[in-house]
Design a protein that fits this description.
Blueprint lengths: L18 E3 L17 E2 L7 E3 L12 E2 L9 E7 L12 E4 L20 E4 L10 E2 L6 E9 H6 L1
Length: about 150
């Protein structure tokens, strides 16, 4: 199989029906305050698209949402398709006190606080097919997914 082949993302990458959020740029994050300075987001009983930008390489965005144990949380990055078909693929992780296990925490740019675990989203091994936002006609390259349903249920 050709490793440069574009992978279909399937029907789960539907952007329609999502509520847009435009949070402010995050504060300057330093080692001692990673989670305490997180930007608070609304509850995740609805489907949201969070629009923000990376201002510099290595910039960290930390968002906070309160979720009850057992509730599903699905997170995915969509990066705008750049000219000439290129794109960037920011990394992300879910950090919580109730995850069933941790994965790839050595890739986090900060130390996990005691009692917390994290799952870092794996990078795609192949280029992904772009998804077009029907309203704006912007093409996005879907990034990896972390879904708490698959973390618990396999």
């Amino acid at each position: 199989m050709n490793t440069n082949e574009i992978q279909s993302t399937g029907p789960t990458d539907d952007l329609a029906g999502s509520l847009p959020l435009f949070p402010p740029q995050p504060k300057n994050i330093s080692e001692g305050n990673i989670l305490s300075n997180a930007l608070r987001l609304p509850d995740f009983t609805k489907k949201y698209l969070i629009f923000n930008r990376i201002g510099a390489p290595g910039q960290i965005h930390v968002y906070r949402a309160d979720c009850r144990a057992g509730e599903r949380l699905r997170a995915q990055i969509f990066a705008p398709k750049l000219p000439m078909g290129s794109s960037i693929s920011p990394r992300f992780a879910i950090v919580a006190q109730s995850l069933p296990y941790s994965a790839d925490v050595q890739q986090l740019p900060f130390e996990l606080p005691a009692g917390f675990s994290a799952v870092v989203a794996p990078q795609h091994s192949k280029p992904m097919a772009p998804v077009t936002d029907l309203l704006t006609r912007v093409n996005y390259i879907p990034g990896p997914v972390v879904d708490t349903r698959t973390l618990v249920g396999g």
